[in-house]
Design goal:
By secondary structure, the chain is α/β, with parallel strands linked by helices. Helix content is 29%, strand content 23%. The chain contains 9 helices and 15 strands. It starts with 5 loop residues before the first strand and ends with a strand.
């Protein structure tokens, strides 16, 4: 494997190429390292390909000015970055939203936690037929993702518009069965999230994730009739292992991520399709 700033890892390659744990403050380490010693070491940050990798490259450049050496480690799936962090093959990761992290902690027993927000890849509501959600007709078809996580996210967005009411309020585990008020008798059509942009001509309203909206030529800030705010529970986070949340170097990396230069990069590079969540 050629040496480069960003290393692409998938599946079993994680175990082969990431043998040395470089996290600080681990109970398995022979001694505690000071913040100054830690900052001189290579800090491995896991990301997924695309925006998360692009932004972390910028963070690495800014962090280097403070003497922090970040190695961006890129993955092609959504499971391995948490596994690698849990296994101490990474020091931090930056790719997942809080509900996803919570699910990994709950379902997989991983001892990980967020130390702060990064970006929001907002879900938005689009329509080729109406310009304002106030004008949604009775019996309108609303297309939402058919997977539980994104389906709940879409329902929360429709509830935000005041069109429905969910039994459990802001539960990120909501489903169509949890709708207790639906005064316009909206018809919810659940399909694969990747196919939803194609449904716009055949539905009244469609809830589309940004990662599928962009390839379809849709900008959530310009083309939607409703978009999640940066206070959304689906904001992405910087994650560490339990016990590392007070690591001074990691907190400095978070501060760099949440700095004005990174905010400017996100705003100018993604032009509103991805927004700072800090």
């Amino acid at each position: 494997m050629k040496s480069k700033v960003r290393t692409i890892l998938t599946g079993a390659l994680v175990a082969v190429t990431c043998l040395a744990a470089v996290g600080c403050g681990s109970s398995s380490a022979p001694k505690e390292k000071s913040a100054s010693e830690t900052s001189k070491k290579e800090i491995k940050v896991g990301v997924t390909a695309g925006p998360h990798a692009e932004i972390m490259d910028e963070v690495a450049k800014e962090a280097a000015k403070q003497g922090i050496n970040i190695k961006v480690v890129e993955f092609n799936d959504f499971v391995q970055p948490d596994k690698a962090l849990s296994d101490k093959d990474l020091d931090l990761n930056s790719y997942q939203h809080q509900p996803y992290l919570d699910n990994m902690v709950k379902k997989q027993g991983m001892k990980l936690k967020s130390i702060g927000k990064t970006i929001l890849m907002p879900m938005a509501v689009y329509s080729h037929k109406i310009k304002d959600l106030k004008n949604v007709p009775d019996g309108a078809k609303v297309t939402i993702p058919n997977d539980p996580s994104n389906g709940a996210r879409a329902l929360l967005l429709i509830q935000q518009a005041g069109l429905i009411k969910l039994k459990n309020g802001n539960s990120i585990e909501a489903s169509v069965a949890d709708i207790v008020e639906n005064p316009k008798n909206l018809q919810f059509v659940e399909i694969d999230a990747a196919q939803i942009p194609r449904s716009l001509d055949d539905t009244d309203v469609a809830c589309v994730n940004t990662n599928y909206a962009i390839p379809a030529g849709l900008n959530p800030q310009k083309d939607s009739i409703l978009v999640e705010s940066k206070e959304s529970p689906y904001a992405c986070v910087l994650a560490v292992r339990d016990g590392d949340e007070n690591n001074e170097t990691y907190k400095k990396i978070l501060a760099v991520y949440q700095s004005d230069p990174i905010r400017k990069f996100v705003e100018e590079h993604y032009k509103g399709s991805i927004v700072p969540a800090f």
